[in-house]
Design brief:
This protein has about 240 residues and is α/β, with parallel strands linked by helices. About 30% of the residues lie in helices and about 20% in strands. The structure holds fructose -6-phosphate (F6R).
Length: about 240
């Protein structure tokens, strides 16, 4: 089932998305949250920090598992997704850092890291609420357009368009890692609930394609049409074509 919630602008849509996470933690304080990086969720994270600072939100029993991490970057690198999560959320709330999980970009043995991450998610009993952003090419996590939907955690070669899009965070495009570890489509689809956030007119076409076009691995997010509980939160611009 797809629920669509529209905010007037980025701030408004960020509050709406934060409220879904707020409700999840309130109803189940020991929730397992699947988290995402990228620019879209930053406003929601800021709002969650506010709720925490106001004394209304307690992360002490929450466990988190992040979607993905660049391969080859160490977690102290300021471009790593671990660094991002600490900076935009974990450092500002009372989450137990030992209960926060991000794939280990330093692990060079890809098969081993992917197996470890799949086992970790399974041992946690799965994900209660998975937060996602949507790539311009329809990727979720780093599941890039391809021939198949990959089920488990895997190591991917990033699409040229993703490397270009992400180069805005690096000094030059040559510094963008070319591979990443990512949860697979199976990991994501096994989450109880999915919350996907989109902002800006640049996402309008892909939102339409992903949620109202054919289900195909060429648009990885299109598989979300088969999930039982998806909340799509966007601003007016991103939702303007649906
Ligand atoms: C981030 C991730 C990516 C982003 C996507 C959208 O952990 O897995 O799939 O969600 O690239 O990024 P933004 O929000 O920057 O447009």
């Amino acid at each position: 089932m797809l629920r669509i919630l529209k905010g007037n602008d980025y701030g408004d849509m960020s509050r709406i998305a934060a409220n879904v996470i707020f409700a999840q933690i309130t109803l189940k304080p020991d929730s397992v949250l699947g988290l995402a990086t990228g620019s879209t969720p930053i406003g929601a994270y800021e709002q969650l920090i506010k709720y925490y600072e106001e004394g209304n939100l307690d992360f002490s029993h929450v466990t988190s598992v992040n979607l993905d991490e660049y391969r080859g970057l160490d977690d102290t690198s300021d471009q790593s997704y671990r660094y991002f999560m600490n900076k935009y959320l974990f450092d500002h709330v009372n989450i137990n850092l030992e209960k926060t999980n991000v794939p280990d970009g330093k692990e060079s043995d890809a098969a081993r890291e992917c197996l470890r991450y799949d086992n970790l998610i399974e041992n946690l009993g799965g994900i209660d609420l998975q937060l996602l952003g949507l790539g311009n090419n329809g990727h979720i996590g780093f599941n890039e357009p391809g021939q198949v939907f990959e089920k488990g955690t895997h190591c991917v070669d990033l699409a040229e368009s993703t490397i270009e899009a992400n180069s805005r965070f690096f000094n030059s495009i040559d510094e963008v890692p070319t591979q990443a570890y990512t949860m697979g489509i199976g990991n994501i689809m096994s989450a109880d609930k999915i919350l996907i956030v989109v902002s800006g007119e640049g996402k309008a076409d892909i939102v339409k394609e992903a949620f109202f076009g054919p289900i195909t691995p060429q648009v990885p997010a299109s598989i979300l049409q088969l999930h039982k509980d998806v909340t799509l939160v966007g601003d007016e611009a991103a939702l303007s074509k649906i």
